[in-house]
Amino acid sequence: MKFVQLLLMKFVQLLLRVALLSLAAAVFAGLTRLYGGSERPRLPNPGWQAERRHRPSQPHFGEFQEFVGEGGLLIFFAISGRIVLRLRLSPVSRSEGRPILLGLHQQARIAKSW
């Protein structure tokens, strides 16, 4: 009787797992359909794209607004990289790199004394 109950419980667990995986697949398919059916953004003006592609890589100091804009963009990416990626600009603390003592050797001694 116990064997039948155990077999039945295993079968119910298997069915629950299959149902959960089917639900996850259905949600994924629905989200994919929703994303695929969304409207794509319009591309910018082709003239602006051509001008952007053919401009020199370095900013011209004579065009001050472009120079300030590129500098602002660089600062923005530097700050966002610092925040998002948590880049460490300060020196490493002295305690970092030292092993953390968990007291395992004490527990081993207590276990041996028993």
What does the main sheet amount to?
none
What is the percentage of strand-forming residues? under 5%
Averaging pLDDT over every residue, what do you get? 78
Q: Which bin fits the share of residues in helices?
A: 55-70%
Q: Strand-and-helix sequence, N→C?
A: HHHH
Unreliable spans: none
Say how many strands there are.
Answer: 0
Structural class: mainly alpha
Q: Cα-atom Rg, whole angstroms?
A: 31 Å
- How many H/I helical runs? 4
N-to-C terminal Cα separation, in Å?
42 Å
Shape assignment? flat
Describe the structure.
It is a single chain. This protein has 114 residues and is mainly α. It is built from four helices and no strands. The two termini are 42 Å apart. The model has no long low-confidence stretch (mean pLDDT 78).
